[in-house]
Design a protein that fits this description.
Shape: flat
Radius of gyration: 33 Å
Low-confidence stretches: 2-6
Helix content: 55-70%
Strand order of the largest sheet: 1-2-5-3-4
Distance between the termini: 105 Å
Mean pLDDT: 77
Largest sheet: 5 strands, mixed
Number of helices: 8
Structural class: alpha+beta
Strand content: 5-15%
Length: 296
Amino acid sequence: MKMKFYTMASLAAFVLFSCVSPKQLRQAEARYGELNGAYAELQGKYRTLEEELNKSKNQISNLQTQKQSADALLNTTNTQLDYVKQTNNLVLNQLKDLSVVTGAQAESIRRSLENIGAKDLYIQDLQGSIARKDSLNMALVMNLKGVLGNIDDKDVNIKVDKGVVYVDISDKLLFKSGSYEVTERAKEVLGKVAKVLNAQPDIEFLVEGHTDSIPLVKGGGMIDNWDLSVKRATTVVRILQDSYGMNPKRMTAAGRGEFVPITDNNTAEGRAANRRTRIVIIPQLDQFFKLLERKK
């Protein structure tokens, strides 16, 4: 009985597969290959996104740790300040009781000490404001790195230096060689930057064009590297304004030519690094000076 069953099953399988033509089989195999490739690509994207998520989590954890340390330091400072005030009052009362100083002199000293305490509080308030500005800069950097995460680090560099955010974009991403004509990929990159900057409407920024030290071959309406760097900067601000609705009042275009390199121009790698467009987030000095005003 079993032998009869196996014989029938084998016969059915033979009939089934004999009905599939070689063409259909090849098409099925090709489709399987496409699906397998798409699955592998999705796996790669998933791993990349997972790595970016882990990096963001680590950065957030570091910021939380820094905030906790700052809060602890502020609490310690306040405690020490209260202790100093109490000690000062005690010493003044003792001096007054001993008639070492007169009541008027003691009151003068007391006012001086109060002024010192007010200055300490003012300094703490200023430090807190600076810390908040640093936190905003860090959030801005994280957002920019998030939207530009799929671009090679050699082509885009984002950093904070002395409280200022810098975004360096290599010329090969934005412009054709020796020209201010943009590449196909330029709008993609600038669109991602504009998405972050448009979310911060109070931020003003400077767009700088930079070149290497190789003299420009005259032509195409350009005289030298100064001219090229200026035209590249104005091209970028026009794209941000016309294509992404950036308020032109927020932007300044400038050409720096070859005169502010970030590395040596003696190598091809160095010259490639120096050919860049730099976006500088301009510090809001009016707000900073308001912090310096003495509170009444």
